[in-house]
Give the backbone structure.
Amino acid sequence: MSDALKPVKELTYNEAFAELDGILRLMQNDQCDIDRLAALTRRATELIAECRSRLTATDEELKTILAELEN
């Protein structure tokens, strides 16, 4: 994990998901630096919120498109 992280809003969904996966792997590693644990948890929380927001927005957009197709 790089110390110079891009703001979460500037990441693509795939980048955010990949970073989240990397954080999970670090946390599961027995050699995870306890001093970085709070920062990793904070970043993971931001990434989860952003991914969830994008998934919800996409779901709503798809529902709108499908409703328009039915009319």
About this structure: The first helix runs from residue 13 to 28. The helical segments are 13-28, 37-70. The chain has one domain: 10-70.
